[in-house]
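tokens incoming
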């Protein structure tokens, strides 16, 4: 079911949103229907949840509430956007998904990983990506990129950018653990590469992994 669902993961500023836009464009040029979406967000209710979760003023959110908000947003997003898109044969590219919850709320916050996996199972109804692109980058570099972007952006998002460097190192370590656990699904890319280098590595992988009619795959 999730065979044409691809997720993009990695720390703040690792280049997910930059990459996903280019991948979507490249696939659309080939005549493939692409649904580009993100978490938190991806649908109107998910967007409201996103505003709560990423608002830098909401520093009082406790870890378990944060976890449940992510799960609630995901449940809505999967049913409203992801499943219908997959059912009509679209390729779905999702900017962050279940692995973010394991990396941030599990390894970053220290919440129980088994519990998080169960919650992800409830939230997704078992819809998992066939391949996940993990953009790996030292947090010092990623935060530098993200902060320069936050300063120029007008939005209020940025709650995670304010976390300590130690937190971000735990998140990165968490992603490594996830990649080691599921090496066939998780495709790690060195995000220190140029945007073009990251894009090329992704396209090579995704074109081989997608299930689309042959005439549109080349
Ligand atoms: N490979 C790259 N090399 C150098 N800079 C990059 C690269 N990819 C993206 N950037 C720049 O880094 C900044 C952050 O990139 P981007 O917004 O795509 O990251 P992100 O992973 O989506 O971050 P977040 O998790 O905060 O949403 C942007 O200014 C972008 O132009
Ligand atoms: Mg982004």
């Amino acid at each position: 079911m999730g065979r044409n669902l691809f997720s993009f993961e990695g720390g703040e500023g690792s280049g997910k949103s930059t990459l996903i836009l280019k991948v979507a464009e490249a696939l659309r040029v080939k005549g493939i229907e692409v649904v580009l979406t993100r978490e938190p967000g991806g649908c109107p209710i998910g967007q409201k949840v996103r505003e709560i979760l990423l608002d830098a003023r909401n520093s009082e959110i406790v870890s378990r509430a944060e976890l449940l908000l992510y799960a609630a947003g995901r449940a809505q997003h999967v049913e409203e956007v992801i499943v219908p898109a997959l059912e009509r044969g679209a390729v779905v590219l999702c900017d962050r998904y279940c692995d973010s919850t394991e990396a941030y709320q599990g390894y970053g916050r220290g919440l129980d990983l088994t519990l998080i996996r169960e919650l992800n199972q409830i939230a997704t109804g078992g819809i998992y990506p066939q391949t996940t692109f993990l953009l790996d980058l030292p947090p010092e570099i990623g935060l530098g990129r993200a902060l320069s972007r936050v300063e120029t952006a007008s939005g209020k998002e940025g709650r995670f950018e304010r976390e300590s460097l130690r937190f971000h190192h735990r998140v990165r370590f968490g992603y490594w653990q996830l990649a080691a656990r599921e090496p066939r699904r998780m495709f790690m890319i060195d995000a220190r590469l140029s945007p073009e280098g990251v894009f090329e590595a992704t396209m090579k992988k995704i074109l081989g992994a997608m299930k689309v009619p042959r005439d549109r795959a080349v």
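note: The pocket of adenosine-5'-triphosphate (ligand 1) is lined by residues 10, 12-18, 145-146, 149, 191, 193-195, 198 (CB under 6 Å).
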